[in-house]
Amino acid sequence: MDINITQDPPADVFQTKRKYGRIIPFLLALIFCAILLAVFQVVFGSAHGDLLENIALVLFVGPALVFFYCVEKLHDYKMLSPEQEREMEEFCRQDQDVAAYCAKVSMMARKLVKAEYDACKEQVKERLANKKKFS
N or C end of the chain: which has fewer CB within 10 A? Predict the structure, then answer.
C-alpha cells in the first residue's frame, strides 16, 4: 500500500483488508484439496496417478503463491502496537505534516495502520536528514 502523507488518508483501508480476508479462505480450501488429493493417491493409488499428481501440484502451487501474496499485502493493514503508537506521538511532535496526517486520520474515526506508520517514519527520517544536511 502506497501512502503519501501530504495527501488525504485513504478512506477504504479496511474495505481493502476485508477483500484480502475473503480471498484467503478460498485459497486455503484449494490447498487443502490438493493435499487430500495427494494423500489419496499415495494411500490408495490409481491408474491415473501421474494425472492426479499433476492436478495436486497445480492446486497446491498456484493458490499457495497467491496466498503468500495476499498475506504479505495484509501486513500493511496491521494495527499499531503500543510502542509504535508512542513513536507516532513523537513523530507528530517532530513534523507538522505527520501531525496533520494523524489529525486527518483521527477525524475519520479510525486508527493508523502499519503502512501509514512506515510512511510517517520515513517522512520524519527524511526531514531529519535534510536538517542535518543543511546545518
Answer: C
CB neighbour list of residue 33: distance below 8 Å, 6 or more residues apart: 59
As a whole number, mean pLDDT of residues 5-26 equals 86
- What is the SS3 assignment for 113? strand
Q: What is the pLDDT of residues 80-106, one digit of tens each?
A: 999 999 999 999 998 899 999 999 999
For residue 59, the SS3 value is: helix
Q: So where are the chain's domains?
A: 13-77, 82-134
The reported pLDDT for the residue numbered 63 is 95
* 91-122 residues labelled b (16+ CB within 10 A) or e (exposed): bbeebeebbebbeebeeeeeebbbbbbebbee
- Within the chain, residue ranges assigned H as helices are 13-44, 49-74, 82-94, 96-107, 114-134
> Do 98 and 5 form a contact (C-beta atoms < 8 A)?
yes
Q: Cα–Cα distances in Å, from 133 out to 73, 97, 105, 106, 129?
A: 35, 20, 31, 33, 6
pTM of the model: 0.75
